[in-house]
Amino acid sequence: MGDYTGRIEIGRPPAEVFAFLADLRNMPRYLPTVTRVGPQGHHDQHDDVAVEGEADGHQYRNDGWVKAEPEARRMRWGSHTMQDYGGSLSVTEATGGSAVELKLSLTPKPEVAERMQREHGNVDHGMRLAVERTLGSIKTACEKGPAGQEGDGSSADDLHDSRPFGSSATLNPDI
């Protein structure tokens, strides 16, 4: 299993950024492979969720869990079917707004690992790039102005570029 981390600063207050990310209905705005996220019940420790979407031309659905810790501005998640998959996200104060730190633990499926090896030279490099693109996508979604204008000049292509990570971040069984 690989562990991957990344950090990005966002020009919005930490409470606003965390509220946006903790609202699972916003997930399709920064993970384009996701088409739908829905609650599946509540346990003492976490909320069960179902995630649906499309990645690499394949529809997927996976059941997992998300634990939001608003007082710490932290979220943790995992899969009920993929024991080697999990992650966390934390939002802290930073100069000019917030910092988001993303941690992901997973072992890509063999076909995904082969593709990353082919496209990026090795799996770790491909995963690091995917984490960076996903953080860029989160930044774009959080800083987007009310009229659909970009808040910082980020490219809308950032949303498209997060697809490789988006499928794994959303419990896609294909990774």
Give a description of the structure.
- The chain is of the alpha+beta class.
- It has one domain (2-169): 2-Layer Sandwich (Alpha-D-Glucose-1,6-Bisphosphate, Chain A, domain 4), CATH 3.30.530.
- 33% of the residues lie in helices and 37% in strands.
- The longest helix has 21 residues, at 123-143.
- The radius of gyration is 15 Å and the shape is globular.
- The model is unreliable at 146-175 (pLDDT under 50).
- Residues 165-175 have a biased composition (Polar residues).
Which terms summarize this structure?
Alpha-D-Glucose-1,6-Bisphosphate, Chain A, domain 4; single chain; 175 residues; seven-stranded antiparallel sheet
In short:
The protein is an alpha+beta fold and 175 residues long. The chain has helices at residues 14-22, 27-30, 110-120, 123-143, 157-161, 163-169; strands at residues 2-10, 34-42, 47-55, 58-69, 74-79, 86-94, 97-106.
What's the layout of helices and strands?
Blueprint: E1 2-10, H1 14-22, H2 27-30, E2 34-42, E3 47-55, E4 58-69, E5 74-79, E6 86-94, E7 97-106, H3 110-120, H4 123-143, H5 157-161, H6 163-169
Antiparallel strand pairs: 1-7, 2-3, 3-4, 4-5, 5-6, 6-7
Helix pairs in contact: 3-4, 4-6
Number of domains: 1
Spell out the helices and strands N to C: EHHEEEEEEHHHH
Q: Report the mean per-residue pLDDT as an integer.
A: 79
Distance between the termini: 12 Å
The largest sheet is: 7 strands, antiparallel
Q: Structural class, from secondary structure content?
A: alpha+beta
Number of H/I helices: 6
- How is the CATH topology named? Alpha-D-Glucose-1,6-Bisphosphate, Chain A, domain 4
Number of β-strand runs: 7
Taken as a percent bin, the fraction of beta residues is 35-45%
Please give the share of residues in helix: 25-40%
Q: CATH first level: which class?
A: Alpha Beta
List the strand order in the largest sheet.
1-7-6-5-4-3-2
> What is the alpha-carbon Rg in Å?
15 Å
Q: What is the fourth-level CATH superfamily?
A: START domain
CATH architecture: 2-Layer Sandwich
Low-confidence stretches: 146-175
Protein name: SRPBCC family protein
Pfam families: Polyketide_cyc2
